[in-house]
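User: Show me a protein chain along with its predicted structure.
Assistant: Here is one chain, sequence first, then structure tokens.
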Amino acid sequence: MESHPGLFALFPVLIFVALRQGLRLTCLSLVLLSVTALATTWYYSPFNVSPYNPFFLPWFLLAAIVSTLLTSIASRGKRRCLQLLAEAEAQYEKLVNGAPVLINGFTNEGKCTVWNDECGKVYGWSRKEIMEHPDPLSVLYPDPTQRAAALDHIRGQSEGTFKEWHPINRQGATLTVLWGNVHITSNHSIGIGVNLSSRVRAEKELRLIKERYDHLVQRIPVGVFTLRRTADGMISYDYVSPRLCEIYGLQAAEIYSCPKRVSDRWHPDDQAEIARVAEETRAWLRPMRVDTRIMFNGEERWIRIEANPIRLPNGDTLYDGVQTDISEIKGNEFELALAASVFKLSYDSILILDEQHMIVDANPSVARLSGHSREELLGTSVDRLIPEGETDLTCQQAIWHTVDTTGAWQGEVNMLARNQTVRPLQLSIVPVRNSKDVILRYIVVGTDVSLLKAREARLEKLAHFDPLTQLPNRYLLADRLRQAISKADRNRNLLAVCYIDLDGFKDVNDKHGHDIGDLVLKNVSMRLMDATRKTDTIARLGGDELILLLGDLDEANECKEMLERVLQLISIPTEISEQHRIHISASIGVSFYPTDSHLPEVLVQQADRAMYVAKHSGKNNFHMYSEHSR
């Protein structure tokens, strides 16, 4: 057999390349091919058939290449599987450690195999500490009974169910955890839990607060109630305290089922007054306070009812209040106790000042109105509650002098709140003297009259302004006319009284209806208000009749330009729709003070006559009054 060393020199080279590329299976295949080649050479040698002939070498190389490709593909597939496995393990690690719930794993012998980051946060032990601990359950459950129960739970005796457990954290605090286990293998389980400690603690605190409240309500010597009045007038009690039931000799169930049982106990002579006060309280949402007599076991007793109303979004009115039996404390002791109760519960603001006018006490209403807490007010001067522009020293001295000499002062002042808003108060100040007539304290009581003033302002506006056009009405016009005449006298100039009548306005009402007529009238009024000066007055007498007062005129002709502008503004069409417009005009009569008359009523009459001259002259113009205008 002839030797061909080149073929066998190729094998080490291929094996070396495969090793460099990490192709272990390829290396093994090449080794096997080398052994096969050597065996073939030995086998064919006796027959003088050389494996190194031209036909043998290509087939051998082809086999080597195919073997290399197949082993390469298999190796790459294995690496891909390993990569996917590594990614899955990373995702599993991220899911377990990043989950906002407790996740851990234990074997049936109690060894920890899984301990996520949330477990470390809640329990305080790191993953390494727990997993290396020989008996981690003894750390979490020092009590042997609890530890044995936890181990039974891990072993799957209650698999798939959640149960409340109380492990111990690193600081020794007992936790409340809702826990469930799932068996993964026969010797291993995974547990998922939720830390309920904060919720359980909050519920416990809430129960404690409720118990304290109930205990307080039962101990205080007044009856506490919450009464509800629906929008349709139905009455029901949301809550009555045991003391209230005791006052009326009724059971709570009786009051809840039939609220009228309480009012039936009131004296017949007092029921009408109570109903009046209750209705007034509901209408104005102001505190209710009324005394009534009740008949109980044949005995007449006095009850004081106090409540604060609040309007709910659904229209119901809720009264939170107290009822006090005042039968046995009619003397001075009762008055002192009642004063203390009124100080705390009164809707009015009450301040107690020392002889230097420094605040020594303030009731909750002061804090509510001023925005300052009681602690912030104590020890400070009462001047801090007075607006900066109203701290007139002379005025304050006069008030305190009146208090010290006459024993009281009443009046209206403004109170500066913390948010810089000003509230009007009806104030009363009385001194408290000792047996030697020395002033020890001052009692300052303030009632918030902002709602009352707003109501007065609304009534004032209704009394002096036209509700449709918001122009001054004839009553306010009379006052404005007197003021304008006085100003004309001071400045020695003329005042023009312009009587305006809208032409064709009756036809607008008849053809289009009063709603369209009102729209036209409001549009005209707005145009005139925008066009006149601040010193001028535009008023509505009624219907389509307006009065315009133009002052500061040196001569009569100065108002002609304004009158022409008024006629132009009135003639602007009012759009009802894109296709329909209302066209009107005006006739204006003018009289002048003092040339035509000195009397306000006469000036208006003269302007009225001049207006008719303008209307008979073709409308949409103005006419100055003269003796020939009659």
